[in-house]
Amino acid sequence: MFLRINEAVKFINTFGNEFQKKYYRSLFGNYNIDQTIMYLEKFQNADGGWFQIDPDYKGTVSSITCTMTAFGKLERLNIMKSPLIDKSKLYLQKNQKCDGLWDEPVEILDFDPPYWYYPRIKENQIWFTNGMLRYVISRCPDEDMIKRAKNYLKSFWLGDRFPGYDHNDWMGIVSFFNSEDPSEKLIWENCLNNLNKNISRYDLADVIWTLESCYFIGLSKYEPIVQKALKILMEGQLDDGGFGTGYGEFQRVDVTIEALDSLANYGIIPRFK
């Protein structure tokens, strides 16, 4: 499949906001990362949580989902140490429930978010917790938070999958990676098997997040799941140069940026450095 890289970059520059343009240029070595981080800081509240970094959410109350989104961008930028991460860690420690879960605050409903943001819904709480655990492991490892989140998630394991969203599989291959616990090894193996079986029906955004997780845990481009995901991704560019997603037109700039980053991570396209 022939990738039209220049057209993808044009799409980003035409439709992206100021942060998205800086984000793209930083990923590809053409912009000072410190300046991008300074701009990213505008989306962090004083309590350490994040807002509006995900186009799905227009509110100002700190959001667990937006905190995941911010950590995903910090991971792609390869930022491990930052006051932004330190503040987020305190927010996550404060907001993790006694049983290990993370949930969105009820105040978020005042801003009419999509259903997958809704608090107090079990399938949402599971993916909030799995996703936040995945990024805690990636950006701010904390033994207590990790243990409690894992125990919460394991209480809902159905033997071959988590209930609810497919997101749990690409999250789970990080959340339960490289564990010595036999039950956690089994979860990891099943999450990977589920990805291999089901990725052909995933939205392109989920394919990109799958590649992000695979890359983080060190799966090579010769692994079957990576091969499948890369093939789907390389077929996902639309006529306007951007990459498509069923999650909404407003998500396409981020999807296009992170599609290019995933392709560069696996050596399919150059970094332009």
From TrEMBL:
Which InterPro entries is this protein grouped with? Answer: Terpenoid_cyclase/PrenylTrfase
Question: Please, which domain of life does this record's source organism belong to?
Answer: Bacteria
Q: Which SUPFAM superfamilies match?
A: Terpenoid cyclases/Protein prenyltransferases (SSF48239)
Put simply, this protein is called Prenyltransferase and squalene oxidase repeat-containing protein
**What is the protein's species of origin?**
Anaerosporobacter mobilis DSM 15930
> From which lineage does this chain's organism come?
Bacteria, Bacillati, Bacillota, Clostridia, Lachnospirales
